[in-house]
Structures are given as structure tokens and as C-alpha cells.
Design brief:
Blueprint lengths: L2 H8 L17 H17 L8 H10 L4 E11 L5 E12 L3 E8 L3 E5 L3 E6 L4 E6 H4 L6 H5 L7 E6 L6 E7 L6 E9 L2 E9 L4 E11 L17 E4 L2
Parallel strand pairs: 6-12
Antiparallel strand pairs: 1-2, 1-11, 2-3, 3-4, 4-5, 5-6, 7-8, 8-9, 9-10, 10-11
Length: about 240
């Protein structure tokens, strides 16, 4: 059984596309998948309340979470199941509202959210795109951070049986016009292991996390973009 069939048969992939304004150029699809995931992680760093079993599982993981670092592998599939992008790198997350993604393969990119703007630096093209963070994350779960509202107000939260060793939580947006169709979060014990996303464009994205560290000490410089790096700057707004 090839990799695509295995992923489809196990239903361990979900689709997401950030087909909105902004921040994409030649290899931007890699970076945008990270922004989508970071958006979800922002949501997960927000408050989680409610009596639903899925919500309680999220709350258990999120309690006391202030920062996160992890290596990741990303696989994105097209609607017909063909492999589109396979990449890897390191992520850093610091609440509230800051993240950094470093892609080392196949395209070197750095994505930084500093709380005000999102910066995408394509090192190979020597290009920097940047946009107001609120606008860049518009229509994503990250938008809930500023609202300080519970997950269940915008998502139906439940447990999902993936038929494996992971404990899965599924989130389905309540809004009908959202591009995110379904999000599944897989835990092994207290460790975030896998994140699967599905979008209305039938694209599938899977992130697998390794070497995850909870509440590491992260320097503020990680979440500042150095504008003196040079290159071509593209301001989206």
C-alpha cells in the first residue's frame, strides 16, 4: 500500500487551504499551511470551556500552556490524492499571539508573527511579504484569541475514533461559509502528536510533531523580524 492510500484509508488527513488574501508567492503554499496550523494553535492556546468530552480533553492539554516548540513534518495532498508538498522544519509558539516557523526543506522559509504583523521570508527568492496580523488571520480560528471566547461558540467539539493509538478531538466550524471544513487533533498521552485539516477545496494537510517541548523558555528575539535582512519587501496592507 503506498503512502497516499495509507493516509486515505486511515482517514488521518484533513484538508486546509488558506485561499485568502495575502502572503503567498512561489512556495507560499508551504508557508500558508503553517499559518493555518499556527492559527489553530493560537486557538488552542486560548480558553477552552464546556462540558463536552472533546472540549474537556482540549482543556486538559491546554491548562498551563504558555509556549511550545517542536519539529514537524508536513504532507499536503491534492483533491485527487496526489502528493503536492512534503516539507519539514521547526515551530515555536508563545502565547499570546506569537509564532515562528522555520522551513529547512525543500524550500527555506521563515514565518514570524510578532503580535502585530505576519512576516513571510522566502530565503531562496530573497523576498519578504508582510501583512497586519489581524487581517492575515482573518477567517481563521486565530481570530478567536482577541475575542476571548470559548471554542464551542464557533466549533462543534467531539471525540473521534481514528482506529489507532491516538486520542482524537474533532472540531467542525459552526459557520457555513468557512473554508475550514474539519480539524482533527491527535494526542498520545499528554503529547500533541498529529494535526489534520480539511478544507472546502478538497486539499488535505497533515502535520506530524516530534521532539515537542512544552513551556520552554523562548527568547523574544525569536518573534521579531529583522527588517535589515534586505531583499524585496512586499507589503500586503
Amino acid at each position: 500500500m503506498n503512502e497516499v492510500d495509507r493516509l486515505k484509508n486511515q482517514q488521518l488527513i484533513d484538508r486546509v487551504i488558506w485561499a485568502r488574501r495575502g502572503i503567498a508567492h512561489r512556495a507560499g503554499r508551504i508557508g500558508l499551511a503553517s499559518l493555518r496550523l499556527a492559527s489553530l494553535l493560537f486557538l488552542l492556546c486560548g480558553p477552552a470551556t464546556g462540558a463536552a468530552t472533546g472540549a474537556e480533553r482540549l482543556e486538559s492539554y491546554l491548562k498551563g500552556l504558555r509556549s511550545l516548540s517542536s519539529r514537524f513534518e508536513q504532507v499536503t495532498l491534492s483533491a485527487d490524492g496526489g502528493r503536492m508538498v512534503e516539507s519539514q522544519g521547526t515551530l515555536y509558539l508563545k502565547r499570546p499571539g506569537k509564532f515562528r516557523w522555520e522551513y529547512g526543506n525543500p524550500v527555506k522559509q521563515v514565518i514570524i508573527a510578532d503580535g502585530k504583523r505576519v512576516w513571510l521570508h522566502d530565503l531562496e527568492l530573497d523576498q519578504v511579504s508582510h501583512q497586519r496580523q489581524g487581517k492575515a488571520l482573518e477567517g481563521t480560528p486565530a481570530q478567536l484569541l482577541a475575542m476571548d471566547e470559548p471554542i464551542e461558540r464557533y466549533f462543534r467539539v467531539s471525540l473521534w475514533d481514528g482506529g489507532d493509538e491516538r486520542e482524537w478531538v474533532e472540531l467542525q466550524p459552526k459557520a457555513k461559509d468557512t473554508q475550514v471544513v474539519r480539524i482533527r487533533i491527535g494526542f498520545i498521552g499528554e503529547r500533541l502528536d498529529t494535526l489534520l485539516m480539511e478544507d472546502s477545496f478538497l486539499q488535505l494537510t497533515r502535520f506530524t510533531f516530534t521532539g515537542t517541548e512544552r513551556n520552554p523558555i523562548l527568547q523574544d528575539d525569536l518573534f521579531r523580524f529583522d527588517e535589515s535582512t534586505g531583499g524585496e519587501f512586499l507589503q500586503i496592507d
